[in-house]
Amino acid sequence: MRSKGFRRALTQLIRALRTGGSLSDIITLIADDVAYELRMKMKEFGERLNLIGVLFMFICVVFPVMIGVMTPVSSLLGSLIPLEIVFLFYFILAPMLSGMIVYMIKLMEPS
Fold it and tell me: 38-79 pLDDT, tens per residue?
């Protein structure tokens, strides 16, 4: 098995059966240990997800709105941002960045 917790639990159960220990106590201890590990992994994942959420909001929400506001303002001031760059960002770069962030979150999920 690839699960470290399952391997450790199986080893402890076999050891308890060989030595004649109380199986209910061993199973309770193993369940508590595995539950604690999962809680720690979820807490760590939540902390990392908080930072990624802030980055996602900036890249996929704030930055496009800022470009959308700056384009008309820059045209009024005389320095026009080329529409090709705006379209490139909105239709190619922003969706790619969003997809990369979602994929990165999926890779970081605790198993």
Answer: 899 999 999 989 988 888 888 778 887 887 787 777 777 776
